[in-house]
Design a protein that fits this description.
By secondary structure, the chain is mainly β. It contains three helices and 18 strands. Strand 8 and strand 9 form a beta hairpin. It starts with a helix and ends with a strand.
Length: 399
């Protein structure tokens, strides 16, 4: 009897050890790569700061090469780290050097472990580190999920690179958390879970830029996804932020208002009818920010406004070699300063884009699009407006 009891005790210990997860069982590694080819059939002087293949003497390039390391340290603490391997920096001879590693995300989520007042377990979480600033819909949507090649100037100019260093608090009830997840898993181009409500304090100098003043930006985020009785899902919301942005050093002959510390504030709205199969998506924002004046002698506060409207149709093919085809059309415009560029030049954008995405399962996607673009070249003075045609293709593989 004693020997049998000892054997059962040893067996119980072995089984108990088998249920304990090792550290490597708690970590997920995934990523995606976007390879692009660009052709400019007309004016080859047109430029876009969001795609370095839009220029003369170019062609193939990596737009994004990313790995995501994420996992749960405990039941109430998780982490997320994402480096970018396709970063670029100016070269010593005026050319651009590509494929440098840059940090995109590095943060931890600290969940409320027990129910509190009217909040259920894990309804509240605090995000600390470098992460996306919760402003808008498209900025929060992963480039792995987004249909159009680039984010719109009007929305993305609020937070270049979409990310910043700070502390954010998110509130998401359990059922809404499941709906956010379903919008991603079902291929409906969701934005992910950034809370029904969110509030944050962050540096405000944009991604990977050292803080230049003692002021901090404050952001408020509110969005609501709703599943209608017949299964259609819509989402609408409003966002706002306010702070003081320091424009940094300007070129010779250009002065700065208030030593470069200029009011930076915006209010935005968004609405999404998810593709089941027809989709309509729109965002717009208005506000004030740093802007080079008309005589190009001083950076001062100016008005900004812009956004986009987009329509798409999700055709589910459901073949072994082809899952779905999603054609789309988008119009965007923007007028206002680009605060993150040297001298914060005034920028004008009017652009039409039409294209289609082919999904070969979840592992492979191919997109081709044509754009008629009229935009300011914010990279080189005297910041002339260029107009031309852009044809781009992209192959994306997910792993």
């Amino acid at each position: 009897v004693k020997l049998k009891a000892d054997e059962e005790k040893k067996e119980a210990i072995i089984q108990d050890r088998a249920t304990i997860k090792k550290w490597f069982d708690k970590i997920s590694i995934r990523g995606y790569v976007q390879a692009r080819y660009t052709y400019l059939p007309g004016d080859k002087s047109i430029r876009s700061e969001y795609d370095n293949t839009i220029r003369d003497n170019t062609g193939f390039a990596f737009r994004r090469v990313r790995l995501v390391f994420s996992g749960d340290v405990t039941d109430w603490l998780s982490f997320y780290i994402q480096p970018e391997f396709a970063g670029s920096v100016p070269g010593t001879t005026g050319d651009q050097s590509n494929n440098f590693v840059q940090l995109r995300d590095a943060y931890s989520d600290i969940f409320m472990p027990v129910p509190f007042l009217f909040f259920e377990e894990k309804d509240l979480r605090v995000r600390v580190g470098q992460s996306k600033v919760p402003f808008g819909f498209e900025n929060l949507q992963s480039s792995q999920q987004r249909l159009a090649f680039d984010r719109s100037d009007g929305i993305n100019s609020a937070a270049n690179g979409e990310r910043d260093l700070g502390i954010f608090i998110y509130y998401t009830p359990n059922e809404t958390r499941k709906l956010f997840r379903r919008l991603i898993d079902s291929g409906l181009k969701g934005s992910g879970d950034y809370g029904l409500l969110g509030v944050g304090v962050y540096t405000g100098q944009t991604l990977n830029v050292t803080e230049r003043n003692d002021n901090k930006h404050i952001v408020l985020h509110a969005t609501y996804p709703m599943e209608l009785p017949y299964g259609q899902i819509i989402q609408f919301g409003v966002d706002a932020y306010r702070g003081t942005f320091n424009v940094g050093t300007t070129s010779a002959g250009i002065t700065r208002e208030n030593n470069g510390n200029i009011l930076d504030e915006r209010v935005g709205v968004h609405f999404v009818l998810f593709p089941q199969p027809i989709c309509f998506q729109a965002e717009w924002n208005w506000g004030h920010g740093p802007q080079l004046n008309g005589s190009r002698t001083r950076v001062e506060e100016g008005n900004v406004q812009g956004g986009y409207v987009q329509g798409m149709y999700k055709w589910d093919v459901n073949q072994p070699w082809l899952t779905s085809v999603i054609p789309y059309v988008r119009y965007q415009e923007y007028s206002g300063g680009k605060k993150h560029r040297t001298n914060s030049p005034f920028n004008v954008v009017r652009e039409w884009e039409v294209g289609a995405e082919w999904q070969f399962g979840k592992a492979l996607e191919f997109t081709i699009a044509y754009a008629r673009s009229r935009r300011t070249d914010t990279q080189t003075a005297p910041y002339n407006i260029r107009e031309g045609d852009i044809v781009r293709t992209q192959l994306q593989w997910n792993f």
